[in-house]
Each structure stands twice: as structure tokens, then as C-alpha cells.
Structure prediction request, 106 residues.
Amino acid sequence: MTDTSETPHESDKADKARRDRDPAPLELLRAARDQLTELTGMRPESVSRFERAEDGWVLEAEVVEITRVPETMSIVALYEVTLGPDGTLTGYRRLRRYERGRADRR
Prediction:
């Protein structure tokens, strides 16, 4: 029977190799922003959620869908964006829309 357990030193090497392959958080956010902009034609203004998911990453981004004057009347949408482990956009969906000047009622 072969022992396949790693020594602490080997485990550290494996963790470092995985981290070296994983894109940096800022790279992931930039890639998500660029891909969402290309697909929707709308550029995200801010990211309110960003976290690792079971099969990649999930983020929520706010996008101005309709610009109005005054700016507080513009329509903003919150989008959920899913990314694969490498930062490739795998899906997005609009969670809600609201006027920029309105407080969140949740």
C-alpha cells in the first residue's frame, strides 16, 4: 500500500503552486467588468459583493441602465455575475433595478 499523504513541506508547495495559478482578485474583477460591458454594453460602476464560489467566483455589480437628469433619478441595476475559476464569465443576471436616489428598503 502506497502512502499518498503529503508532508507539510509538500503541502506548502502545492498551496503555493495553486495560488500562483489563480488569478489575482483585481485581475478577476477587471475581467468580469470587461466581459459584462462587452455583453451588455453597460459598464459597472461598483462591486458590492465578491467571493469565491464552489466552482469559481460570484460578484454583484451596479450598472447604470438609464441615465437621467438629475442624476439621482437614473435607473441603476444590480447584476450577479458568475465566473469560472480562471475568471471567464459563465453567467449573469439582473437581481433588481432602482432609482439611484432611493434608499434600499431591505
User: Anything to note?
Assistant: The mean pLDDT is 86. The CA atoms of residues 47 and 61 lie 4 Å apart.
